[in-house]
Amino acid sequence: MTEVFNLDTSYEDLLAQKLMQVDESLDRREGSIIFNATAANTLETIQMLVTLKHMTDLVFADTAPREYLIRRAAERGLFPLGSTKAKLKGVFNIDVPIGSRFSLDELNYEVIEQIATGEFVLECETSGEVGNQYLGTLIPVDYIDGLTAAELTSVLIPGEDEEDTEVFRKRYFNSFNSISFGGNRADYKSKVGGLNGVGGVRVYRAWNGGGTVKLVIINSLFEKPTQKLINEVQEAVDPLDKQGEGLGIAPIDHVVTVVGVNQFPIEITLNLTYRDGWNWGDVESSVQIAIDDYFKELATEWATAQTYEEDHTGLIVRVSQIETRLLSVEGILDISDTLLNGTSSNIELDMESIPVRGGISA
Length: 362
Prior knowledge:
By secondary structure, this protein is α+β, with helices and mostly antiparallel strands. Helix content is about 30%, strand content about 25%. It has a seven-stranded antiparallel sheet. A three-stranded mixed sheet has the order 8-9-10, with helices on both faces. A three-stranded mixed sheet has the order 13-11-15, with helices on one face.
């Protein structure tokens, strides 16, 4: 008996295929000996096919669950990026001891480095993006003599959660499109993009003469990075006091300069028609959120550039996109005559800039 089926064959189809191969002179009706025997055999076959399909899904990267995707990607030297701890700036009325601990909300922080008089770098003791969420008054875990003011003021290097499975899967497949080797573009993007706090990098060769490389980075929150993050990336890639010596990620004779992405403010003028009973005060915060979300999407697009062409293409802030998103804001009936920095045209940014919201007039 020849059986024709694949791993997605259903029980009903397989049973029908088997019965069609039985001589028509024999009783194949439901309840007959042949039918019952074939049905039992088909059930076992389907169970086998389900197991085989599951095993097949495990070993191919497009369907593998996280555990097996990691094993598959390891064959190419790729591993998911682990979670990291946020580093933040703390301001105190006195110089506090290195190693002293403070709490804010449900999180604890440890002083790890001094920036200036009364200013320190604190590391969140809990890894992940949660460390980026809280700013405000710090409470010392242990008594510190003379301490009367302690404030967590800003995120210096964002903490990151462990790399999401689907993001890792995409990175695995992207690895086939460009080969990372010895300081080429793909090598810089892979290694620098994997550094703590870095959300993306664009690479520019010979920007200041032969042998020079410029890396423009964005932080993992898709915002302009702090100087602290820029300095740490510079040290990891090509230390300033030994540039070109190959003591970091960069190969020997590559003189690398790391800078942060620029922020380009967009002033927005809106002509809104409100629904009955609504006014600007009712919708202002929602409008700001909608615009910030759009600009965040553009910044993410900037960060995920992979090719040479994408690295050398600037973002476009589109009037139509802003108007479309604002029309979904509750309380807004219509919108017209939108101006960006005083013009009705889209704004094309240079290749090293991301947009940020300026003032909004309505």
